[in-house]
Amino acid sequence: MSQIRNFEISDEIFGGYMLELEISNFNSKQDICNIIINSLKNILISSGLTTLAGEVDRKKFHIHDITMEDIRTGYENQKFWVCGFCKNENEF
Ligand SMILES: [Zn+2]
Question: Average pLDDT, stretch 11-26?
């Protein structure tokens, strides 16, 4: 059974970037974030926006407040936020 979930970045620079992912092969929220980060960087680099791609690396994108299990047991196409705002790692 496929498990499609929608992810959208919440961030002052990259907010609005959306990606639909089939999550059944992901083991952690960090795995999901890494795919989204790489996808965003690839788009920026392929468009010649290398400075912005470097900005992506300075962010600590994360999914806070919810667990991987919450994402797994969510509904088809449910949206989850990938946050770039929190500065304190203890917040996520
Ligand atoms: Zn956050």
Answer: 97
Q: How far is the CA of 91 from the centre of ligand 1 (A)?
A: 7
Query: Residue 4 is which amino acid?
Result: I
Instruction: Count the residues in the chain.
Output: 92
Q: 9 and 15 in contact (C-beta within 8 Å)?
A: yes
| CA 90–ligand 1 middle distance (angstroms) | 10
Task: Give CA–CA dist 82/9, Å, rounded.
Answer: 5
- Specify the pTM: 0.92
H-type helices in 1-92, by residue range? 29-46, 50-58, 68-72
**Which of 20-24, 71-75, 88-92 has the least mean pLDDT?**
88-92
